[in-house]
Amino acid sequence: MSEEKKEKSQAAQLKEKLFISKKNGCIKVSEEDIRKADEFCEEYKNFLNNGKTEREAVAYAVEAAKIAGFEEFDPYKQYGAGDRVYVNNRNKAVMLAVIGKNGTHNGVRLGIAHIDSPRLDLKPNPLYETNNLAMFKTHYYGGIKKYQWPTVPLALHGVVALKDGSSINVCIGDSEDDPCFCVTDLLPHLAVDQMSKTMTKAFNGEHLNVLIGSRPFNRDEESESVKLNIMNILFEKYGMLEEDFLSADLALVPSFRARDLGFDRSMIGAYGHDDKVCAYPALMAALDARIPESTVITVLTDREEIGSDGNTGMKSTYMIDFIADLAKIDGEEVRHVMAKSTCLSADVNAAFDPTYASEFEANNSSYINNGAVITKYTGSGGKYSTSDASAEYMARIRRILDDAGVLWQTGELGKVDGGGGGTIAKFVANLNADVVDLGVPVLSMHAPMEVVSKIDVYMTYRALYEFYMAENV
Ligand code: MN
Ligand code: MN
Q1: CA 244 from chain center: how many Å?
Q2: How far apart are CA 286 and CA 465, in angstroms?
Q3: Cα of 446 to ligand 2 centre, how many Å?
Q4: Distance, CA 152 to ligand 1 centroid (Å)?
Q5: Which end of the chain is more exposed for a tag (fewer CB within 10 A), N or C?
Q6: Is residue 321 part of a domain?
Q7: How far apart are the CA of 403 and the centre of ligand 1, in A?
Q8: Does 2 score more than 60 pLDDT?
Q9: Do 228 and 321 fall into the same domain?
């Protein structure tokens, strides 16, 4: 008996040495780390509640950066180690740089997350009345499952720009005292036909009409008086005319607030975790980076959910132009800086969902509570549309995270040929930098309420911070 027992423990020892640990991440981290994770996530929830759109997230980030000593970047000024600057790109994307001891001479460290999330944008001509109801026409933004959006309480967020150059900030529906809005759905009693359709046919883009009012102006019987009543409320509240919708960025987003999820409060349920759950850790890592070796640049970008096109997305030149400005100050050429630069593309991955286990490949999925997930490649099919981090770069990132005691895991996006997706990693790789995706595993990604683990959020912050402050990458 005792011989056998001894043999078994040898196998166990060898397993421990040779195998990847399958222990629950909650057991691997200290109680102190769990406490810190819970604490870190308190302000994260506040960021979520105040940053549902990219514009609101930029406002939050700029405010926090100014308090932490960041100044607006001046390309004609000289900067030294420890100086902190930011660039606000059209109030929809923002870059924060902390100048390193070596400036840009050994490349820069990039942490890039996106702050746009799937939502229902208003069409340019949104307002109409039908059958005595006032409605908004919407055009969805990003990859949504349309059936998830009816009957969810919605809030209207955004900006209306007026011809006189001024603009109106709109944020209505989040507060308990505000009214909210919603897309209606057909009652089950009459849904025989609807229920027999495939999901994409049962709910298409033109079904996503938002109910916004039902009473006529002055009890008037004239046509469109319900629409008139709404327009009159908007005129009185915001001074806007119907044609002002033509120059507006208005979106409907879920109105609920971020909340602890689970009896143990280990998770957070909220709208917009993708990708605020990486943007917030990246922002905090930027604020906490004091005097790094190489210049650290944190980018909170826009337009990722629709393919990164546009002047505030990662296909724009705004980031490389900023790096060129920093390089010029150091007497460097930007192409030489980029060749030596390294990047963590901070974006989410799909957490393994036991209810939909067959869509995942269990050995290569990321799991709630197992820490920051490194995604070597995204894309679809035969590794199309992805940059795929090199073995060497993966090894360097592993070393940094392990040396610092950061809890991390790897994951692919679902099983092979199960679908796919991408991040901004490939656009940065195309600039000739080393890049890999690192972020938080998310359940119900792109749904009105997404779920993440507090430990994973905190470990993503730690990963970004250690990457920023490492002597070399
Ligand atoms: Mn994302
Ligand atoms: Mn996404």
Answers
A1: 29
A2: 7
A3: 6
A4: 22
A5: N
A6: yes
A7: 27
A8: no
A9: no
Q: 169: domain CATH number?
A: 2.30.250.10
Q: Which residues surround ligand 1, an ion (CB under 5 A)?
A: 274-275, 347
Q: 427 CA to middle of ligand 1, Å?
A: 14
Residue 46 has pLDDT above 80, yes or no: yes
DSSP code for 293:
S
Q: Looking at the CA of 114, name the nearest ligand.
A: 1
Residue 265 covered by a domain: no
Using the structure block, give the residue that is written with the tokens 């096109």: 309
In the reported structure, the alpha carbon of residue 471 is separated from the centroid of ligand 1 by a whole-number distance in angstroms of 28
For 7-45, how does the pLDDT look when each residue is reduced to its tens digit (9 = 90+)?
689 999 999 999 999 899 999 999 999 999 999 999 999
3 state SS of 117: coil
**Residue 327 CA, ligand 2 centroid: distance in Å:** 32
What's the farthest any 2 CA atoms get from each other in the chain?
A: 94
Other Cβ atoms closer than 10 A to 382:
7
Say which ligand is closest to the CA of 305: 2
For residue 221, the model assigns a pLDDT of: 82
In a domain, 8, yes or no: no
Distance 114 CA to ligand 1 centre (A): 7
446: domain CATH number is: 3.40.630.10
Are 136 and 164 in a shared domain?
yes
Residue 4 has pLDDT above 80, yes or no: no
Amino acid found at 36: K
- Summarised one tens digit per residue, pLDDT across range 198-255 is 999 999 999 999 999 999 999 878 889 999 999 999 999 999 999 999 999 999 999 9
Whether residue 262 lies inside any domain: the answer is no
Judged against a pLDDT cut of 90, whether residue 433 lies above it is answered with yes
Are residues 458 and 345 both part of a single domain?
yes
Q: How far is the CA of 165 from the centre of ligand 1 (A)?
A: 33
What is the total count of domains within the chain?
2
Distance (angstroms) between ligand 1 centre and the Cα of 239 equals 36
Same domain membership, residue 297 and residue 245: no
Whether omega before 275 lies within 30 degrees of 0, making that bond cis, reads yes
Question: Please, how many CA atoms are within 13 Å of residue 458, restricted to the half-sphere of its CB?
Answer: 26
Give the closest ligand to the alpha carbon of residue 115.
Answer: 1
Q: Domain of 232? A: 119-254
